[in-house]
Amino acid sequence: MLIHIAVFGVGIIAGFLNVMAGGGSLMTLPILIFFGLPVAVANGTNRVAILAQNLTAVAAFRRHGYTDIRTGLALALTTVPGAVAGALVAITVSEGLFRAILAGVLVVAVIGLLVRRQGREQRHDTPRHARLVAFLSFFAVGFYGGFVQAGVGFLIMIVLHQLLQFDLVRTNMHKVLIVLVFSVPALMVFAFTGNVAWPTAIALAVGNSTGAIVATRVTVSGGERSIRMVLGIALLLMAVRLVW
């Protein structure tokens, strides 16, 4: 019972961070492991919450009039093969290697998001070569998302905001749809191999979904300014976490 209350509370914060910026799984994965779940089971259990959270966020964005399913699905489908491969690797990799890869990718993500393009307006028409690189990048993003999930939101934001030059509201709108799509096959891998603690997963999913609803409202009402503020806080917390 204690674990369910704890993961619900942490899930609210994680769901908010995941939709607004990213890195929420860096809170949920440690708490799941702290309560005795093996790394693979914690990884799989977290996927249920991620799926519910992003399904909630996609629906909320649609209610607020923010939707571009065609573009989002085109980007999301390129992540699926990588996500399946990443999940298959995740259920067999050693815990030490798992942590080392996570730390390395987060360092790159923090650096990438701190670099802002100067002197260029956000645009809706993206150069063809940038789109090609973005689609190739999303395969790698899918692999990482299937492998660990934690911090994948930062990577998606780098591709959408820096490479495709989407504004941050559109970036978040597409991000939640992309994560939703590749979370389905990744969760199936964990579920079919018995690496999901379902009661705990449901409690966490309710928490994440609650946080996602709040984050969607803040994103739509606050625009880029609110996203940058939360993103800055999230990056600071991730940096502290990495140093610690």
Describe the structure.
- The chain has one domain.
- It contains 10 helices and no strands.
- The longest helix is centred in the C-terminal third of the chain and has 46 residues.
List keywords for this structure.
globular, 244 residues, 81% helix, 0% strand
Distance between the termini: 30 Å
- If helices are DSSP runs of H or I spanning 4 or more residues, what is the number of helices? 10
Q: Evaluate the radius of gyration.
A: 17 Å
Helix content: over 70%
Overall 3D form: globular
- Approximate strand percentage: under 5%
Strand element count: 0
Low-confidence stretches: 117-123
* Secondary-structure element pattern, one letter each: HHHHHHHHHH
Number of domains: 1
The major β-sheet equals:
none
> What's the rounded overall pLDDT mean?
83
- Briefly note the structural class of the backbone: mainly alpha
Brief overview:
The chain is mostly helical. It has one domain (2-243). The chain has helices at residues 2-20, 25-34, 39-63, 69-77, 80-90, 95-114, 128-147, 152-163, 168-192, 198-243.
